[in-house]
Amino acid sequence: MTEFERALVQSFNAYFEKTGIKGISHRLKQHRFTPQFLDVLVDSLHPDYYLGIECKSISVDKGANALYFTQHFTVDKNGVHQIVRISDYLKKSGRTGFLTVELRMGVGHARKAHIIPWIELERLYHTDDILKITVDDIQKYPEMERDGKMYIIDPARWKDGERIIV
Length: 166
Hints:
Layout: H1 3-19, E1 24-26, E2 40-43, E3 51-59, E4 66-68, H2 82-93, E5 96-104, E6 112-117, H3 118-125, E7 132-134, H4 135-138, E8 146-147, E9 150-151
Parallel strand pairs: 3-5
Antiparallel strand pairs: 1-2, 2-3, 4-7, 5-6, 8-9
């Protein structure tokens, strides 16, 4: 589990404890030859907190200027792209999906994270002429503000995320 994923899980669980909302966030154990569907799962009977979150990080300080669909996402042994696999999982589970992108800005600069509704990511992926999401475009999505090492959970800002229901 990356530091980013751990902080996200801890932030959700602290939020649930603080607000009294029944819910839990967790990271499924990753096995070497078994793919996981998503990095972070959030379970709750409250539909706003029944989430699936995929986490990506890019090093802006080392010259990364975009999140590429070919470089930053995997293709399984059957040739199925990670975005397609996750979209299928979200449809079957009824979860609202998000992509969180952590922008590492380098030593002495705070990391920033932005949250993109999965339905928007899926739309971009299926647009023929779009091969990436630039850092500038990522920064147009809501920032996940921080309080120390924890992220501030603010679902009202993420309402654009829609459940993908077939």
